[in-house]
Design goal:
The protein is α/β, with parallel strands linked by helices. It has a single domain (3-35, 43-134, 145-177), classed as Rossmann fold (3-Layer(aba) Sandwich). Helices cover 24% and strands 22% of the residues. The protein contains four helices and eleven strands. It has helices spanning 3-15, 19-33, 59-67, 139-146, and strands spanning 43-45, 71-78, 83-88, 95-97, 103-105, 118-121, 125-126, 132-133, 152-156, 177-179, 184-186. It is globular, with a radius of gyration of 15 Å. The two termini are 19 Å apart. Keywords: ATP-binding, Ligase, Magnesium, Metal-binding, Nucleotide-binding. Belongs to the 5-formyltetrahydrofolate cyclo-ligase family. It catalyses: (6S)-5-formyl-5,6,7,8-tetrahydrofolate + ATP = (6R)-5,10-methenyltetrahydrofolate + ADP + phosphate. InterPro entries: FTHF_cligase, FTHF_cligase-like_sf, NagB/RpiA_transferase-like.
Length: 187
């Protein structure tokens, strides 16, 4: 399938999920994340979910990271340049939703991309080769190309993979893992 078709299909599938189902599936994903070989790493980048889009609730993973004393990094979007600026999440971080309902830090201690060891990547769909379809703005593909080569890229999905995303581009960055409520896929 093409990314455009996948976006439409998976936005629809997400809209069918109740809040209780989202929490149950998100907790199952967090439990699978515990099995990944990532826990010796220090800097973990995570997205804060757009609840209106029924994204994976990353609160459970945030609790895991916090409990393991990891440095947690969140981003702020610049829609003019499609760049992400990364900030350390601390007890003093103030979060505000932007005009697209994306929760973002207002300010804080900036973290250079080169420090980030693990990135949890939002997505709408993924395939069996590790490619993903996001919302189509390219924020994460741009960000992931700026990361060091050994940065571990982990997609989070409520749904199992498609066979193949047909319109993969040269600058699309593959995932290393994708975690669903039932499975951990390694690419």
């Amino acid at each position: 399938m093409l990314k455009k078709e996948l976006r439409q299909k998976y936005k629809g599938k997400r809209q069918e999920l109740s809040d209780a189902e989202i929490d149950d599936l998100s907790l199952a994903i967090a439990n699978k994340v515990l099995t990944l070989p990532i826990w010796e790493k220090i800097y973990f980048h995570i997205f804060l979910p757009i609840t209106e889009h029924k994204e994976v609730n990353t609160e459970f993973i945030l609790h895991l990271l916090s409990g393991k004393d990891k440095e947690i990094v969140i981003s702020k979007c610049d829609f003019g340049t499609c760049n992400l600026t990364h900030f350390l999440l601390t007890d003093n971080t103030k979060i505000k939703k932007n005009e697209y309902n994306i929760p973002e830090p207002i300010d804080g201690l900036e973290v250079p991309t080169g420090k980030i060891d693990v990135v949890f990547v939002p997505l709408l769909a993924f395939d069996k080769t590790g490619h993903r379809a996001g919302y189509g703005k390219g924020f994460y593909d741009k960000f992931l190309t700026e990361c060091k080569p050994e940065t571990i890229k982990i997609g989070l999905s409520f749904f199992e993979p498609e066979e193949l995303i047909e319109d993969v581009f040269e600058n699309d960055v593959k995932l290393d893992y994708c975690v669903t409520p039932n499975e951990v896929y390694r690419f």
